[in-house]
């Protein structure tokens, strides 16, 4: 499908000219020998701005350096041109709640395990991750399960074709992996002791642990301010909760029933932590309260309500009602509950129930990026953001549309025309086997 | 959603011939008009911009007239003058009422709690005598949910969780009692060669499962033979035995055996059994790895109730493909689509959506629609009544405000036997 034309000479003068014209933003010094990759001819759906027919996106060093209509964005000489005529290019999809790669964390020993990290569980060579790429996903929040009040640390992953989790992790500037904290309430974390037997017990256990974290933070702060004071003993769980209290780690909270949702809002207010509500099956019943609290929602859409008591009032309407109330709304796959390859379908069904189309597309991209503190890097087609793209053969909200290509940091990580990739996208004999990692993705135009 | 209901706006048309000048010229006489009948004929007509009868090319600006539950006319709207008092529904697209060729709804309840789970009894691994009609709840919310999406008929029953979990049945999705809803009381008997059917309480291995099925089929053959012999000789017939009687109906081919098998070697096992028991009517269910044994399957000619296209790929279904329906249809097999058995969330799928993905992955629109209409009816043996829009068949019709397969389209009405039983899909 792709036609590549690599011009022979470097494009230094052209790039400088574009910088002077304000079309390119030269955040980083230009490196000789680094090629510009130009995605040309697609209908661009930037999310943060109106769609552009026959557009051009320029990419350098994995970042978007220019975006606009073909007439407004000259393709520099020497650029590696990716011809996407007749196709649609939108930001890579962001799934705020996924279990691909088996990111399981807490074990059966107790209901509160903030020290356990899914980073230490993930298998990034799993076929499920490759299938997520086939669905146009480029970023996921890899989540532990919901069988614990605190199920462990989540991992924000960039879906590069990497063989180790280290290659896929989003990181803070200090190098620490970025991720949230998985929490859950309602019936999933309930069980025999030491697990809670009631909702009130669940909240009490959480409250106690957060109070312990507040105390831990106070002791750390006191020791920092006064060299004569000993810092408290290291406690990995409390340290993770202190990150939550400080806003560095967002709580991703599984919650279904309206009263459980209100309990999350209560705890978040009490301990002043940042939280995203996940699933939010009965969010449509308390939409105004959620909106008033300013708490964003990551919503799941499945084909029918029920399957368990808490999901009996699950609705196609939830995203629309929350959106109309003024709450931020993202969608998620909860893969394996829904298949990442069909993530676009969730947006289609949300629109079926009345969510505006632009809000539905944002719910697959920018809204989710915000819920992961990644919106300065991903979620829209904007200069300076990562060149993570989902390339489609038609309207993103049509059942007849397929993801043709997925790009991460300007590199193609899924190509439906490639037989191995197609197998993962469609299924068939061999699709379920572990994906064997091979070195790939040489930057064709850049000589890397 | 407001527009959905406005579009539905069931209007009782007081159309008289004189008021329909252009339509009257080629009007065929309306069949079954019988003014002498004391009771008024119940008439409902569906007018559609595009009418897929599944018994010929789609009709632009078509109409289906249903009288007392049966289709009295199908054709261009221009050729028919609607009798006075006909309830008229308008839709952009109308299709035969959808058929879910295999589900467990009505036995498997939406809340998934002990009081509404009747899809499997685990006291014995093989219980062909368990009747679906004794377990089905016609007021189950998931039945109404499916009905809202245009599903008018379900083939439902015991789940593929035991070697032989019980019987299945065919029912309409309307009716307050099973007696009102029922189409076929004993449609098939559900057997399973999946992981769920092996293990504690059941066969521990594949070979044991096959050995058990052979033993049961032989038991059925023996019982059938004993009944025949008693009839011929005038001897005392064998004592009543519900289990043996059910097995005898399977062995003789009176009741098809629906066997769920996903892996290629499990499908091969079904085909081996089919060669060994020529009288048994096997129907293959699931069939995720059917493409690996396609030639053998075609040679055997078994009908297939294919796995949902969006079924989860993992475990035994790790190699399933969204193209399986296309591959099987192109091979010439009789194929129908199922919502399947779901143990958790969602508790049911919707065949409309599964067929839509089959259309995206290689089938034409009408081929995909046939999976949930005409071909499903043929596979279930109820094509004399349902599956297409033809004169004399049940007036089961699904109405849409656009391409039925599109995500943004809505089902705006469901008609069963000439009655509007759903005013459109629900969103909660």
Keywords, please?
heterodimer, A: about 450 residues, alpha/beta, Urease, subunit C, domain 1, TIM Barrel, 2 domains, 6-stranded mixed beta sheet, 5-stranded mixed beta sheet, 19 strands, about 20% strand, globular, disordered N terminus, B: about 425 residues, 9-stranded mixed beta sheet, 8-stranded mixed beta sheet, 12 helices, about 25% strand
Structure description:
The complex is a heterodimer of chains A (448) and B (428). With 448 residues, chain A is α/β, with parallel strands linked by helices. Chain A folds into 2 domains: 4-91 and 380-426, Roll (Urease, subunit C, domain 1); 93-371, Metal-dependent hydrolases (TIM Barrel). Chain A contains 12 helices and 19 strands. In chain A, β18 and β19 (411-415) form a beta hairpin. In chain A, α4 crosses α5 (236-245) and α4 runs parallel beside α6. Chain A starts with a strand and ends in a 22-residue tail after the last helix. Residues 1-33 and 435-448 of chain A have low confidence and may be disordered. Chain B is α/β, with parallel strands linked by helices and 428 residues long. Chain B folds into 2 domains: 2-96 and 391-422, Roll (Urease, subunit C, domain 1), CATH 2.30.40; 98-380, Alpha-Beta Barrel (TIM Barrel). In chain B, α5 packs across α6 (242-252). At the A-B interface, α9 of A face α3 and α10 of B.
Helix content of chain B: 25-40%
Please, what is the CATH homologous superfamily of the largest domain in chain A?
A: Metal-dependent hydrolases
> Using only CA atoms, what is the Rg of chain A?
23 Å
Assembly annotation: heterodimer
> How many alpha or pi helices of chain B?
12
Calculate Rg of chain B over CA atoms. 23 Å
Which stretches of chain A are poorly predicted, pLDDT < 50 over at least 5 residues?
1-33, 435-448
Instruction: Going across the biggest sheet of chain A, name each strand in turn.
Output: 10-12-13-14-15-16
Tell me what portion of residues of chain B adopts beta-strand conformation: 15-25%
What CATH architecture of the largest domain in chain B would you give? Alpha-Beta Barrel
Question: What sort of overall outline of chain A do the alpha carbons produce when their principal axes are compared?
Answer: globular
CATH class of the largest domain in chain A: Alpha Beta
Q: Helicity of chain A, in percent?
A: 25-40%
The CATH C-level name of the largest domain in chain B is Alpha Beta
The geometry of chain B reads as globular
Could you give the count of β-strands of chain B?
17
């Amino acid at each position: 499908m792709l036609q590549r034309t690599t011009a022979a000479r470097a494009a230094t003068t052209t790039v400088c000219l574009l910088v002077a014209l304000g079309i390119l933003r030269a955040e980083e010094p230009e490196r000789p020998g680094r090629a510009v990759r130009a995605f040309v001819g697609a209908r661009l759906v930037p999310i943060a701005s109106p769609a552009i027919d026959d557009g051009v996106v320029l990419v350098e060093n994995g970042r978007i350096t220019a975006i606009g209509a073909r007439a407004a964005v000259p393709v520099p000489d020497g650029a590696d041109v990716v011809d996407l005529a007749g196709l649609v290019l939108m930001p890579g999809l962001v799934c705020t709640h996924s279990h691909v790669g088996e990111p399981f964390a807490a074990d059966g020993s107790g209901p509160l395990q903030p020290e356990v990290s899914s980073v230490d569980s993930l298998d990034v060579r799993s076929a499920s991750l490759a299938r997520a790429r086939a669905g146009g996903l480029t970023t996921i929040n890899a989540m532990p399960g919901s069988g614990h009040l605190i199920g462990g640390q989540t991992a924000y992953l960039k879906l590069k074709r990497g063989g180790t989790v280290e290659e896929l992790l989003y990181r803070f500037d200090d190098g620490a992996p970025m991720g949230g904290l998985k929490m859950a309430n309602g019936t999933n974390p309930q069980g025999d002791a030491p697990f809670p037997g009631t909702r009130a017990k669940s909240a009490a256990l959480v409250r106690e642990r957060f109070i312990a974290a507040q105390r831990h933070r106070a002791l750390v702060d006191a020791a920092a301010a006064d060299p004569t004071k000993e810092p408290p003993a290291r406690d990995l769980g409390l340290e993770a909760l202190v990150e939550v209290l400080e806003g560095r780690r967002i709580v991703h909270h599984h919650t279904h029933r309206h009263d459980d949702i209100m309990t999350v809002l209560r705890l978040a207010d009490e301990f002043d932590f940042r939280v995203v509500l996940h699933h939010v099956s009965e969010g449509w019943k308390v939409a105004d309260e959620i909106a008033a609290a300013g708490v964003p929602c990551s919503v799941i859409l499945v084909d029918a309500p029920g399957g368990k008591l808490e999901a009996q009032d699950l609705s196609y309407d939830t995203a629309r009602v929350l959106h109309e109330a003024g709450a931020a709304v993202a969608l998620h796959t909860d893969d394996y509950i829904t298949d990442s390859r069909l993530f676009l379908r969730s947006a289609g069904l949300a629109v079926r129930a009345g969510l505006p189309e632009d809000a539905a597309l944002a719910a697959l991209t920018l809204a989710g990026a915000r819920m992961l503190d990644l919106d300065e890097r991903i979620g829209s087609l904007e200069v300076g953001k990562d060149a993570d793209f989902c390339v489609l053969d038609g309207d993103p909200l049509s059942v007849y549309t397929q993801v043709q290509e997925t790009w991460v940091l300007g590199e193609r990580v899924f190509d439906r025309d490639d037989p191995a990739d197609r197998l993962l996208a469609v299924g068939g004999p061999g699709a379920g086997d572990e994906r064997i990692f091979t070195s790939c993705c040489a930057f064709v135009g850049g000589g890397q | 959603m407001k527009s959905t209901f406005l579009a539905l706006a069931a209007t009782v048309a007081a159309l008289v011939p004189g008021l329909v000048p252009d339509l009257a010229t080629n009007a065929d006489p309306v069949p079954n008009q019988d003014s002498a009948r004391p009771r008024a004929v119940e008439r409902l007509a569906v007018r559609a911009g595009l009418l897929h009868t599944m018994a010929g090319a789609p009709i632009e600006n078509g109409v289906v007239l249903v009288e007392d539950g049966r289709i009295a006319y199908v054709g261009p709207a221009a050729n028919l003058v609607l009798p006075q008092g006909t309830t008229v529904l308008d839709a952009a697209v109308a299709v035969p009422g959808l058929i879910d060729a295999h589900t467990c709804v009505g036995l498997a309840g939406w809340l998934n709690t002990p009081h509404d789970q009747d899809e499997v009894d685990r006291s014995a691994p093989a219980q062909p005598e368990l009747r679906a009609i004794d377990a089905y709840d016609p007021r189950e919310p998931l039945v109404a949910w499916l009905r809202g999406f245009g599903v008018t008929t379900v083939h439902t029953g015991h789940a593929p969780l035991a070697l032989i979990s019980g019987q299945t049945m065919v029912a309409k999705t309307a009716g307050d009692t099973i007696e009102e809803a029922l189409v076929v009381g004993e449609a098939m008997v559900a057997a399973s060669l999946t992981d769920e059917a092996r293990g504690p309480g059941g066969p521990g291995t594949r070979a044991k499962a096959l050995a058990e099925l052979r033993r049961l089929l032989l038991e059925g053959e023996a019982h059938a033979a004993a009944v025949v012999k008693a009839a011929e000789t005038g001897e005392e017939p064998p004592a009543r035995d519900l289990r043996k009687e059910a097995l005898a109906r399977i062995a003789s081919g009176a009741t098809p055996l629906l066997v769920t098998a996903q892996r290629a070697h499990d499908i091969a096992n079904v085909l081996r059994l089919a060669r060994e028991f020529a009288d048994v009517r096997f129907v293959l269910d699931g069939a995720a790895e059917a493409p690996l044994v396609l030639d053998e399957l075609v040679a055997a000619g078994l009908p297939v109730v294919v796995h949902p296209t969006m079924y989860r790929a993992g475990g035994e279904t790790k190699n399933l493909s969204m193209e399986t329906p296309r591959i099987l249809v192109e091979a010439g097999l009789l194929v129908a689509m199922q919502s399947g058995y779901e143990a958790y969330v969602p508790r049911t799928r919707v065949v409309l959506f599964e067929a839509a993905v089959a259309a995206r992955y290689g089938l034409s629109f009408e081929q995909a629609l046939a999976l949930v209409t005409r071909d499903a009816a043929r596979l279930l043996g109820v094509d004399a009544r349902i599956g297409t829009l033809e004169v004399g068949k049940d007036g089961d019709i699904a109405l849409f405000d656009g391409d039925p397969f599109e995500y943004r389209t809505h089902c705006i009405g469901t008609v069963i036997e000439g009655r509007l039983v759903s005013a459109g899909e629900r969103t909660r």
